Amino acid sequence: MTAANTPSRAIALPAPAPLLGRRGWALCLGALLVICALAPALNLLLPEGHALHLSDYLIGILGKFMCYAIVALAIDLIWGYTGILSLGHGLFFALGGYVMGMHLMREAAGPGALPAFMGFLDWKELPWHWALSDSFVATVLLVFLLPGAVAGLFGYFAFRSRIKGVYFSIITQALTYAAMLLFFRNETGLGGNNGFTGFATVLGHSLNTRAMHVLLFVLSGLALLGCFLFSRWLIRSKYGRVLQAVRDAESRTMFCGYDPLPYKLSVWVISAMMCGLAGALYVPQVGIINPSEMSVGNSIEMAVWTAVGGRASLIGPIVGAFAVNGAKSWLTVAAPEYWLYVLGMLFIVVTLFMPGGLIRLPEQMRQWRERRRAQARPSSPPAAPARPAVTPPMKGARA
Amino acid sequence: MKLMHKPWRWALLAGLGTMLSLASHALTAEQAHAMAAADDAEQRAQAIHEAVMDPAAQADGGRLAAYLAALANDEVRVAGGKAFVLSGDGASDPVTGAPAALPADAEEVVSNNYLRGVVDSARAVLALGSGDVQARREAAALLAAEPDAARLPLIEKALAGETDAQVKALLERNRAASLLDSGDRRQRLKAVELLARTQTPETQLLLNQRLADESDPAVKKAIQTALARIADALAWGERMGAIFSGLSLGSVLLLAALGLAITYGLMGVINMAHGELIMIGAYATYLVQVLFQRWLPAALFDWYLVVALPVAFAAAALVGAVLERGVIRFLYGRPLETLLATFGISLVLQQTVRSLFGAQNVGVENPSWMSGGVALLPNLTLPYNRIAIIAFALAVLGAVAFLIARTRLGLFVRGVTQNRAMASCVGVNTARTDTYAFALGAGLAGLAGCALSQIGNVGPDLGQNYIVDSFLVVVLGGVGQLAGTVYAALGLGVLSKLLEGWTGAVLAKIAVLLFIVVFIQKRPQGIFALKGRSVEA
After folding, report:
1. Interface predicted TM-score (ipTM)
2. % of chain B with per-residue pLDDT over 90
3. Nearest to B475 among A167, A340, A350 (CB)
4. In whole angstroms, what separates CA B193 from the centre of its chain?
């Protein structure tokens, strides 16, 4: 809200926008309260039959959706704001999940013992990459560092040789596909196609209590809120503006003296780390992680959560993740054979008719109504110069 | 059957047989009974062996053969020291063939697997004297799989009168294999020399077995030399086999990617539903096949592919045209959005196929002319269906190249691709050209589906298995480059098959994917980069 306090510059820059307005902060506070107090109370304190009781099933499913929302947010950073469509975020999600899964497997096996599936394979000692998995602190660090490192290595080479657009998408797809094939192998020491399952405790506390389910729900909610605020801060900063400049006109940004490589690379790594966090929170809640998380379709579906909610807005992907997965949970129970039709039509309808996603639907409707009105009364003075159908950010995504 | 592989057992039995030397005339009632109901399996095997080796028994007009067949079919009963063969409602005497009353207390003869093996090879020995070449070939092949020194005299006799080359070769290998166990080292050396001539995995196995038991240094050395020669020849077969299957995989990739090279390479549309268009082609082939089976005489079945090809092309092209008119034309110039929309289409098409045909794979039969193959080397057989696919891929490639380079449609497609506004200015109907080009790409996918139905499973997931690969081929080859697509497809096919022999299928696939990732780093525009200012546009 304060004016720029360094008037010595020749050009007065507009004041940096606040992270959130007063309403925004109120909303965030409300969300915080709902996540940390209301929902747990409704689940734990109210009796089963009560009208306001939040069932264990809902707590579980909402916790899962919040992890998905983090993924959608991560994809939005790289796709919506930087214009790079990744079809490989399933890999980073699964990497985070596998790191957490390794730790949980070690706990389930007990100190010094091998995880159960290695017993079936008749292995005598832990493979080297399991070395740090008994430490919770190392696991938490690796949840961020491993996806970050993989993304950093891959991204450095890809962005350095200026792979972009569709090429980048297809290469990320190939990378994820290769990783899936690798994880399917028993020799990798990660449980082959069964992956990890049969977790019992985390830090000595059972995973199968209501209190633990609620705790994981709260943690996922806080992580989502944190990721949201962090992303918001990121795109509001100068760094975020450069990202959007890269999205809208990369060459022009370069001519202005910016090197796009570190910007693209860093946001790519941040996005991967957020996915890793989401995967790590997801695994103890669903109790299983296997290579099918890395399938090609899964990663594309993740991009669709973002697209359905609305790219280049931060609330949009969260809405999209909840809407698509909510519909999926309901439909796969109610009419399983129709789910693929609905999902497929969603892809088509959103790209054809709702380029701004759900979040910009009201705005789109208003513009549509205005245009209709203008056409119906040709005598009236023309309406304000037509605004682009949907805000410009979409342009960059059409690289 | 396992017991049959121990030659010493037969040798021992033969020895016993000569010592006991039972009466040698035509099949006797005692013999028949002993073959069916001696005290234990060994004695029954011995009785069968003797009966077969007995020249008189072979000359009794097929009685022995008939009796052995009855034994193999569990149609023999024994009662009161006599054997009976079930025939129709009653029974007959195995020696005379005359009808006989089956006593009420007749017991069933139970043969274990070992005895069944003995009976089978006994029947094969008898069949060596048959007038039918095919029967002799089968018999010789069966015997060659289980060489046995005890049968040597019979084999020698059969060899002397044999005229068919294939039977002769099999028998000679059999004789050599039997000689390998001979006590005379000169005989063994000769056997090694004979075996080294037929360089097959079977002879390799035989020689390896002998090498383990061999004590004579000279024979040992000969066996080692022969083994080295065989290994050499087999390695060549394997190498050529890998290259051939690489070419065949490459032509499959080429077929799957050709349509994509048009829709993606020329039109800039990321068609994630390409795999499902392939699937539609495969299901169209399946439907044509079902119609042929149901409505047309069986003799015409071999021709169903001829009808299926245009049907598959038309079905996929039609779906493609509808997609282009309905969805894609709104998304030109926005490749990432075509990616999402067409992925949606692919999900819908998959579910539609699942609803119509079920989630299980459907069976597509090869026409009879596609089964079998050409045997080039002992361990290298080129299957006809693979050869047909390679030829088909080349034919389709030729047709597409002709279409793009020499026809009016091709000219329009190239014109619209290079400069849409200018093409429109000179009177090209660009919208219609887009539809035709997309339908052509889709139709090519349909042809690929028709071809793939002949070598793989046809199910709702068919498209998913090819989509990543075909995109990689197009990207690797360079967008808009037909030649690049060809090189990339064949190169990837051969590379992955060669790697497969070395690292196994999954690691080879991973290695190939990583190779592509690295390659694209070096040449972001593929093998053949487009030059000029249109590249960035």
Report:
1. 0.81
2. 17
3. A167
4. 31
Axis crossing angle, helix B63-72 with helix B29-37, rounded to the nearest 10: 20
List, for chain A, all residue ranges whose pLDDT scores fall below the cut of 50: 1-4, 6-7, 386-399
Length of chain A: 399
- In this prediction, residue A93 carries a pLDDT of 96
| R_g (Cα) of chain B, nearest Å | 33
- Residue pair B276/B319 in contact by the 8 Å Cβ criterion: no
Tokens of A175: 């990378």
- Which pLDDT does position B448 carry in this prediction? 92
Is the pLDDT reported for residue B1 higher than 50? no
Distance of residue B272 Cα from the nearest chain A Cα, in angstroms: 11
List, in sequence order, every residue forming a beta bridge with B382; answer none if it has no partner.
B374
Residues from chain B contacting residue A343 (CB–CB below 8 Å)? 344, 347
B331 and A CB contact within 8 Å: yes
Q: Could A343 and B471 be called an inter-chain contact, meaning their C-beta atoms sit closer than 8 Å? A: no
Q: What is the pTM of this model?
A: 0.74
Do the Cβ atoms of B86 and B94 come closer than 8 Å?
Answer: no
Between residues A64 and B199, the one the model is more confident about? A64
Task: Report yes or no: A109 and A195 within 8 Å, Cβ to Cβ.
Answer: no
The predicted structure's pLDDT at residue A282: 95
Neighbours of B312 (CB within 10 A): 31
> How far is it, in rounded angstroms, from Cα B329 to Cα B269?
10
What is the pLDDT, as a whole number, of residue B149?
67
- Enumerate residues 22 to 61 of chain B having a beta carbon within 8 A of any beta carbon in chain A: none
Separation of alpha carbons B408 and B437, rounded Å:
12
Q: What is the pLDDT of residue B115?
A: 80
Candidate from A181, A337, A355 with C-beta closest to B506: A181
Residue B397 clears pLDDT 90, i.e. is over it: yes
HEC string of B234-248 equals: HHHHHHHHHHHHHHH
Q: For residues B406 and B482, what is the distance between their CA atoms, to the nearest angstrom?
A: 14
Asked whether the beta carbons of residue B337 and residue A397 sit closer than 8 angstroms, the reply is yes
Nearest to A395 by CA among A236, A252, A233: A252
Tokens 């004297």 belong to residue: B129
| pLDDT at residue A51, rounded to an integer | 75
* Cβ pair A169:B348 closer than 8 A: no
pLDDT > 70: percent of chain B: 90
Q: Chain A contacts of B327, Cβ < 8 Å?
A: 348, 352
* Residue B416 contacts residue B433 (beta carbons within 8 Å): yes
> What residues contact residue B313 under an 8 Å CB cut-off, 6+ apart?
B281, B443, B444, B446, B447, B450
